[in-house]
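Regression report. Comparing outputs from two consecutive submissions.

Submission 1:
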Amino acid sequence: MGSAQTTATGNSEHQLRLQDGRRLTYTDLGDPQGYAILFGHGMPGCRLEGHFLHERARQHGFRIITPDRSGIGLSDYRGRRLLRDYPEDIRQLVDTLELARFSYVGWSSGGSRALACGYALADRMDLGVCLSGYTHFGEYPGHHRLIEGTRWPGPRLAKLSPTLLNLVVRLVVRLSLRHPGLYMRETRQLVSEQDRALLRAFLKGECFRRDQLECLQSGGKAIATDLLTELGDWGFELKSVKVPILIYQGEQDPFVPVDYARHLADNLPAADLTLMPGAGHVYPLAEQFQERLFQRLNHYLNNPHRKLQTTT
């Protein structure tokens, strides 16, 4: 399976001063004249993940805009917040860029941000895509993990003690930064066989390492806050997401159980679930997957009789 790792040249990084004074940093890649897709990075991850999609997005006529979330990378930190607060940053970004319409694609921890935007920005968001994202644990009846497969804290620890979660995250971040080689080796060991093949290709370049390490350099406080907004109360229910959502899930994903995807599909008003046998967690890096995804987005956005219908 081929991997898409073209890195754009030129000035693709930009900053926006939000209304509360915080800086929001983002990459602007793909086709500059194309239909806008906001991309939500994973955890660890940052705005550099837009480079992973740049070439295929450009070929299919999509513009890829990837913001650093609050406190991550070069975006300023915001303290106590819920997931429902996130779309306000995106609203200000799309207003500044004068985007009348857009869609949101989120990978891993970015998936819940796609749902938050589908809840709060339904008046201008056409479609959401959740690539191996978490469900809303406040509604999830299944097992709540203390530690997730990613080695990050899970929803049970978030509920038990946010203070302890902060300490655990700070420890993980400190060890990862002190021993980056060990961190990368452990990442390869944790993922599925298919994921390993993709990571071997990506680790030959610098973009994947930069993406991971820049996020980790944001510090334990920012990362813990980012995780808590996803693991705790979102401030809205899944049934309130009014935008159609495409859900993709690898059946061999060691980090995100298939049951999370099924729970999303069962509880979102308009959702379509695609389970992928053999796929793990990093399939969005694969050229073949990106090709299929962008073809599907083009078909959906250009089809006046869309299969998924928004709820009213």
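Submission 2:
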Amino acid sequence: MAKKNFSNDLLRDLHAEPINQLTTIDDETTVISALSSEEKLNLNTYEEIIEKGLKTFIEVGNALFEIKNNKLYRESFTTFEAYCKDRWQLKRQRAYELMGAAEIVNQLSENNLSEISDKPNLLPSKESHANALAQIPVTLRFQVWRGVVEESLNTGKAITAKMITEQTELLANSVKDTQMPSEPTEEEIKEGILKKMRSKVSKAKLDDIRVEISGKWLIKNSLVDVWREIRQNPNEEIGVDYRVQITLSQAEKMGIIRRI
């Protein structure tokens, strides 16, 4: 397919601020194959938007996305990157920036802005706006944009990327002031459990709690004969696998522990 030149390189220079959306998606190789009549019609529609329209980065980004997503380039190109480079003189990064910026506006359009004003076109109109919004978590993006739109309507000032940044800081501070206590750390959780256990143990009866005496411990500390004497069983076999459980009450009677 022949290259298409544009006066002043409009498409390449259109709102050149970088958008990081979708830049991590790798191009996949597509087998050259014929398009159906419907696909050809769709491709022509999207390419007309890119070629003549250039009204907004949104239209261009959405058109590029549909071409990529449906592989409408496959009749002449094996990759979307090759299509963008040869057909539109667009580098891969720039194509994804446009698609990412358009996606941000599409996400905002899913929310209702009519309650703020009945004016049309309340969505971002510049790629620099989408670029600023891309730096904000998705969950806060609409709240920030709504605040920016309200400020613009109230003051009569045009929306700027700086205004978006300032609104983000205001929202972040507001969230911080009303933020719920942070989640306890693992160490704090363990300490809380230990406190509960200590409280329960302090109130427990001596017969409610048991301790285990192991042969390995007795042997290591040279307490085998002492243990046999305490147990009043001089012939008791005690090896490394020896295990016996006794209550604290029994341990107290044997003199192993002493009540404080």
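Expected: both submissions complete independently.
Actual: both completed, but the second showed a warning that disappeared on reload.
Relevant detail on submission 2: Strands lie at 210-214, 243-247.
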